[in-house]
Amino acid sequence: MRSLCLLVLLLMLLDCCLCQFPRPCATSEGLRTKECCPVWEGDGSACGALSGRGFCTEVEVSDEPHGPQYPHSGIDDRERWPTAFFNRTCRCAGNYGGFNCGECRFGYWGANCAEYRESVRRNILTLSTAEQQKFISYLNLAKNTISRDYVISTGTRAQMGVNGENPMFSDISTYDLFVWMHYYVSIDAFLGGPGNVWRDIDFAHESAAFLPWHRVFLLNWENEIRKLTGDFNFTIPYWDWRNAQSCEVCTDALMGGRNALNPNLISPASVFSSWKVICTQPEEYNSREALCNSTGEGPLLRNPGNHDTNRVQRLPTSADVEFAVSLSQYETGAMDRFSNMSFRNVLEGFASPMSGMAVPGQSTMHNSLHVFMNGTMSSVQGSANDPVFLLHHAFIDSIYERWLRTHQPPRSNYPQANAPIGHNDDVYLPLQAQQIWQWLLGAGLFGAVLAVLIVSVFIVARRKMKHGQRKKRASSFGERQPLLQSSSEEGSSSYQTHL
Ligand SMILES: *[C@@H]1O[C@H](CO)[C@@H](O)[C@H](O)[C@H]1NC(C)=O
Ligand SMILES: *[C@@H]1O[C@H](CO)[C@@H](O)[C@H](O)[C@H]1NC(C)=O
Ligand SMILES: *[C@@H]1O[C@H](CO)[C@@H](O)[C@H](O)[C@H]1NC(C)=O
Ligand SMILES: *[C@@H]1O[C@H](CO)[C@@H](O)[C@H](O)[C@H]1NC(C)=O
Ligand SMILES: *[C@@H]1O[C@H](CO)[C@@H](O)[C@H](O)[C@H]1NC(C)=O
């Protein structure tokens, strides 16, 4: 079958891993001082400063204007992230990473993080049975093991008291940490009063940060699974859905077959039938002005192919992918879901992969897979509950990489200003609690903002070459093999209604 290797370029200098929120910072003290510079246990100093791993410094946030889609300011914790929570974090030196500089940046290994090693993501359908089983057991372990390093917030910063006297944080499993982060980055803004929300806001979808944000997200997710299992060779496999007629990974050996008694559920022969979803009730949280708190909300729902065929007529083809990759402009126009001839908007799935024109009311490409799954995957905020999300986004990331290698865009191709809130270059998005400096997104040619969630999370993608001063690294990509070879409106609670 298709056996394309995905080279994930962990080549990028991504700094790692702070997801939302580092446990040592989730305290009254952390909230009061707004400092998140945890001690590295290797030498007992904050940010491993004594060993030269990093230092504690002020967070700098871009002040470039954002687009008109979100007309408010000063009401949502995610604005100017992560400054509502922290204004000082660790900045790691060299190849160090992590919220206390105790880890290595993506792609680097060893005690001094000096060894560079690439990882390769592989097609799930070509893994051996033992490898497939290992992957599923890792996911299940992650679903059932409390994260050691991160917690989630269960309230807004305001709800935690002026001086942080009422910290609201909660333990969460390693898998659900990522479900929660994906939820948090896409929630509506609370405007005050039950159900009074601003829906046209999303720090990871419907604009420029969509691709880099999800890239960093997967890298962090992969990293946390590696730490949990001790298998540092682990990579998230992908599902190559080009020309698929059905959910080929929805079998009991993989992501779970269909339940014979209820087509919306997963077969009891799959471990995923016992998983409980979280963060799937946006209207309920909005009515209470509360955040999802990780309470289980019922089984995973999935009914592939039972979707509204007026919205999604077919799954993406190879020709669709070729067309998307051929588009040279990353963003166009207002840089939102109405953009025409934008690579990002076509690949995300708000525009036609045949003409490049926005197609309101339809879902193509990335969005079409979400809608096709007709269940938990079909709502933006809860979609990461379904492990199919991982396989799907690993493949989306490979197409992004292919586009970067094809076009080798200058950094200026990524918007510096006027993108919807959270999507300009050099902003941190809710993913990480630590700054990610010098991210190399993509072929080293493209810097972007990613957001990771931590308290943020910042996600920043910084390219090594800023404003013209190039440094080496950036180059190596162009010569590599491509990763893949061919052998409605307001509100965004659902891929179906909105996207
Ligand atoms: C960071 O937050 C602390 C605590 O609120 C405050 O005292 C300090 O002035 C802030 N620093 C900056 C640069 O805003
Ligand atoms: C991980 O990969 C390295 C380098 O390819 C190899 O030496 C090592 O044996 C692998 N470890 C495992 C547990 O497979
Ligand atoms: C957690 O969320 C659930 C469902 O939204 C809610 O019923 C419950 O009261 C919340 N628990 C806490 C402690 O806030
Ligand atoms: C499943 O598809 C039907 C239309 O076929 C639609 O009415 C329903 O909202 C979809 N459910 C989800 C969760 O997407
Ligand atoms: C996209 O193209 C369509 C068809 O030409 C046009 O009606 C629409 O205004 C364009 N959208 C934007 C944002 O320019």
Structure description:
This protein is α+β, with helices and mostly antiparallel strands and 499 residues long. The protein has one domain. It is built from nine helices and 17 strands. It has helices spanning 28-33, 129-143, 174-186, 210-229, 282-288, 318-326, 343-348, 365-372, 388-407, and strands at 6-8, 35-36, 39-40, 45-46, 54-58, 88-92, 96-97, 103-104, 108-109, 115-116, 119-121, 152-153, 169-170, 189-190, 197-198, 429-432, 451-453. The strands form eight sheets. It has a three-stranded mixed β-sheet with strand order 2-6-5. A two-stranded antiparallel sheet has the order 1-11. Strand 9 (108-109) and strand 10 (115-116) form a beta hairpin. Helix 3 (174-186) packs antiparallel against helix 4 (210-229), helix 4 crosses helix 9 and helix 6 crosses helix 9 (388-407). The protein starts with 5 loop residues before the first strand and ends in a 46-residue tail after the last strand. The protein binds 2-acetamido-2-deoxy-beta-D-glucopyranose (5 copies). One 2-acetamido-2-deoxy-beta-D-glucopyranose is lined by residues 333-334, 338-340, 357-358. The chain crosses the membrane at residues 436-461. Its EC number is 1.14.18.1. This is Tyrosinase.
